[in-house]
Amino acid sequence: MLGLFDSTEVADGEQVRSLRRRSLGRAALDWLCDSDRTIFELAEQGIGLRVIGRAVSLNQGTVCRRLARVRRRLASPLVQTLLVPDSPVPETCRKIALLNRLSGRSIPDIARTLGLTESAVREHVRFACGIVQGMLRRNSV
């Protein structure tokens, strides 16, 4: 966090959370499906759920649920670690895990899209998750 604020400015918790959310949001946007990306971007601009619902032709409750789901995924330590480009997770595993964990795409859908077997996709996701969980355990000790 050094360098984000000058010496006279003290970052309160909300400023830090806001900066983190914006930087994660930018990194994650490419991984979100179009409708989730639109909902997330409009919400981050401070537009109300009812207005967003009208813009994307969904009711307010659906917009609220989708936005909560995207924010929950973005808050996941697993996803945050996978979003870091220099993550120790091999690139292929990282991308497949992000397709599943952040984009919300199913294992069969990813397998069809990438021309892999479902078991290969599952193994990539498990491997990526295992590396990240191991890292998180080591860092919390």
Residues in helix, % = over 70%
Indicate how many domains the architecture comprises: 2
Helical run tally: 8
User: Strand percentage, roughly?
Assistant: under 5%
Shape, principal axes of CA atoms:
globular
Helix/strand/pairing category: mainly alpha
Any overview of this molecule?
With 141 residues, this protein is mainly alpha-helical. It has 8 helices and no strands. It folds into 2 domains: 1-75, Arc Repressor Mutant, subunit A; 76-141, Arc Repressor Mutant, subunit A (Orthogonal Bundle), CATH 1.10.10. The radius of gyration is 17 Å and the shape is globular. The protein starts with 12 loop residues before the first helix and ends with a helix. The model is unreliable at 1-13 (pLDDT under 50).
Descriptive key words:
141 residues; mainly alpha; Arc Repressor Mutant, subunit A; 71% helix; disordered N terminus
Briefly summarize what is shown.
It contains 8 helices and no strands.
What's the structural blueprint in terms of helices and strands?
Layout: H1 13-28, H2 34-44, H3 49-56, H4 60-75, H5 77-83, H6 91-101, H7 107-114, H8 118-140
Helix pairs in contact: 2-3, 2-4, 3-4, 5-8, 6-8, 7-8
